[in-house]
Hints:
The protein is of the alpha/beta class. It folds into 2 domains: about 25-135 and about 265-315, Alpha-Beta Complex (Quinone Oxidoreductase, Chain A, domain 1); about 135-260, NAD(P)-binding Rossmann-like Domain (Rossmann fold). It has 8 helices and 15 strands. It has helices spanning about 35-40, 125-130, 135-145, 160-170, 185-195, 220-230, 270-280, 295-305; strands spanning about 25-35, 60-65, 70, 75, 95-100, 110-115, 120, 150-155, 175-180, 200, 210-215, 230-240, 260, 285-290, 310-315. β11 (about 210-215), α6 and β12 form a beta-alpha-beta unit. The structure holds zinc ion (2 copies).
Amino acid sequence: MILRGARQPLQLVNVPTPQPKKGEVLIRVEACAVCRTDLHIVDGELTDPKLPLIIGHQIAGVIESSGERVGVPWLGWTDETCHYCTTGRENLCDRARFTGYTIDGGYAEYCVADPRYCHPLPDGYAFEEAAPLLCGGLIGFRALRMAGDARRIGFYGFGSSAQMVAQVAAAEGREVYAFTRDGDKSAQEFAMRMCAKWAGGSGDTPPEKLDAAIIFAPVGALVVTALRNIVKGGVVVCAGIHMSDIPSFPYELLWEERSIRSVANLTRRDGQEFLEIARKTRIVTQRTTFALEKANEALSALRSGEFVGTAVITI
Ligand SMILES: [Zn+2]
Ligand SMILES: [Zn+2]
């Protein structure tokens, strides 16, 4: 499924099987989970994709030459030499390349990848169960770590990422307070099934002040809403790659050492740590599957919030 330009539907096209260059492997794609970042690319909100492009960066598949089950995440390559790479922050690498954005991704039958950035899939997960772990799970986990030792955590937006991170948070003894679109009862019930202690609309006041909040929805106004609901010294973590503008707000909401921070990309170490947790804590996901040629329907269903949980393209 090829993207030729922003705001155009993906096109089903026959292309040659990609040829791995030196140091790369050919991967047969079994499943590719849909991420909100895919929407931001298709909608032109992320402005530097390679074109034409095969999107998709939560790839679960098999290395053709070895038969190994692997996952291919968003971080596809780094230079390993810049200031960020050499200080344990390869997620910020100046020259990083990203799967399904600057490298062809997984809305396809085959992809090539640098195996140094791939991860062995945890045993016991089918391909379509493992695929959502690779961004929603993994970058959500990085956001959870940025919340420090917060015990009560608000999740603003309860979709693919939140359903997985809520299970990790609960296993760590934390309490998750889920905020959905106002009046979205099905999303609130879904959150309660997925380990939330409380669920309500984004305009609701939680029953307790929160130690931290993670913003999964791409809505800048939620940053201000979350600041109102956190304790002194609390942090608001923005987990997405793009969001609408954050409205101005009175300094007193930030005062008393509250902070706002973003989370960008992932390191290979995040992947190793998170997939190790996924091995120990069986993460259950609610999924809606789409055939590869229905990828445009998957994207519009995500845009309009037609399903709860995660959309997965199965090949
Ligand atoms: Zn670098
Ligand atoms: Zn993603």
